[in-house]
Write a structure and sequence with these properties.
single chain, 16 helices, alpha/beta, 6-stranded mixed β-sheet
Length: about 450
């Protein structure tokens, strides 16, 4: 009998022995897996793609819908500490027992005779988890199912879902260029692949080039395209680590909202979520108060999250994310009395990220650490880059744990500590805090 731990270990080893599958093969297996247990007809699917902000938009959508009394299931990625974070039903991670049952359901449907002969289909890591999610959600029959894409959109496993209620596309920037293209137009084209016939699309107006891609795709399919931009909201004030802003909506008129965060970029994500709710709620069953409470009570781990007093972790892990992160840091009123714990994975344009961080002049010192993942940039490489900036004070640590402890122990008076550069880094800090006492 396979145990929960054995199932997780098996999933984590998948990248070492599986090959990339075609969308056709993935869709074919998806239909095979869900044929006996499809999502109930009444479950409405919300599909979310984009470069940055996908998880936050999913969180705001879930929070608002739950405030309105809806039962919601959410599939997101990546996880920070526990793999079950990816599967949330009615506000709770799935149990280990349900996780294992879903894992075995997929495992037993694989054609092992063909696979042992070097043929046949085996899901990738992300595909396997997505198939598990659809089985888990089908059994619970939620009112809404929110799916976050992994990489891209057109070729993403989640795009195998044929019937959607609405598609949502967040901010677009250059990331994963080796897979999605080297211009924002090409990347937008991949993200636009989640737009399907019969389902409107709500998207963020990143720039004229990406907006044109989304409008053209929506017109080709004959579906409504609803654009959201910074013109739709107005910052009011920042107090007690909350952001108050006003959002212009269609049905509700101007609505005042409060975000429990210091991250200015979350106004953008909340605005996208609220506009999506308007598109979904044709019968106006969701009230303005549901929206206000949903936005105010929303929590998304690892996004400018205060994990200890004046210690913030943020999932900024690409150039655009770093720029949004720096905008928030610049507005914190610290006058340079800040430190940053930084690490990054190889696939990112980390030289540009480091340049942005150092040249911002916002951090009095840096702690560079090596993460546990095999995707981490080596310490030697990171140190060589930081050495190019003689004005920068930095220290190098073999582990994230050592770096974090050192920053806390040498903390200067009224210094604020930030952690950014990778979601893997945020995950290590979160796990450290769960296991240690500070």
């Amino acid at each position: 009998m396979v145990t929960y731990k054995e199932a997780v270990a098996y999933l984590e080893e998948i990248p070492f022995f599986t090959k990339k599958n075609t969308p056709e093969k993935t869709a074919e297996f998806y239909k095979y897996v869900t044929k006996h247990l499809p999502l109930p007809q009444q479950t409405k699917v919300i599909h979310v793609a984009g470069t940055n902000g996908k998880g936050s938009v999913c969180a705001y959508l879930r929070s608002i819908l739950e405030k309105a009394g809806m039962r919601v299931a959410v599939f997101t990625s990546p996880h920070l500490v526990d793999i079950r974070e990816r599967f949330v039903i009615e506000g709770e991670m799935v149990s280990r027992e349900d996780f294992l049952n879903a894992f075995l359901d997929i495992y037993e449907r694989l054609d092992w005779e063909k696979l042992e002969a070097g043929e046949g289909y085996h899901p990738s890591y992300f595909e396997y988890l997505f198939f598990m999610a659809m089985l888990l959600f089908a059994k619970k029959a939620p009112d809404y199912c929110i799916l976050e894409t992994g990489l891209g959109g057109r070729l993403d496993a989640t795009n195998a879902v044929e019937k959607k209620e609405v598609s949502v596309i967040t901010h677009i920037s250059l990331d994963h260029v080796e897979y999605l293209g080297d211009t924002v137009e090409k990347i937008a084209g991949e993200k636009a692949g989640i737009i399907h016939e019969g389902a409107p699309v709500v998207f963020w107006d990143t720039c004229p080039e990406t907006t044109e891609v989304f409008l053209r795709r929506a017109a080709e399919l004959g579906v409504p395209a609803i654009m959201v931009s910074k013109k739709d909201y107005r910052f009011l004030n920042f107090k007690n680590k909350n952001i108050d802003f006003s959002l212009c909506t269609g049905y509700y008129g101007y609505i005042s909202l409060s975000l429990h965060t210091i991250a200015a970029y979350q106004m953008e994500n909340a605005a996208l979520a609220v506009r999506t709710i308007e598109v979904l709620d044709k019968e106006h069953r969701i009230s303005a108060e549901n929206i206000r409470q949903g936005v105010a009570d929303c929590f998304w781990a690892g996004r400018m999250e205060e994990v200890l007093p004046e210690v913030y972790v943020d999932g900024a892990h690409n150039e655009d994310g770093i720029r949004a992160f720096l905008e928030t840091v610049q507005a914190d009123g610290r006058d340079g009395n800040r430190s940053l714990l930084f690490s990054v994975v190889k696939e990112k344009d980390y030289e540009q990220m480091i340049e942005e961080l150092v040249k911002s002049g916002l951090f009095g010192r840096f702690a560079i650490a090596h993460m546990q993942t095999g995707r981490a940039v080596t310490l030697d490489r990171l140190e060589r880059i930081f050495r190019e900036y003689p004005q920068c004070e930095y220290s190098v640590y073999d582990t994230v744990t050592a770096a974090f402890h050192a920053l806390l122990q040498s903390r200067r008076r009224e210094e604020r500590i930030y952690v950014a550069g990778s979601l893997y880094l945020v995950g290590e800090i979160k796990e450290l805090l769960e296991n240690d006492k500070f």
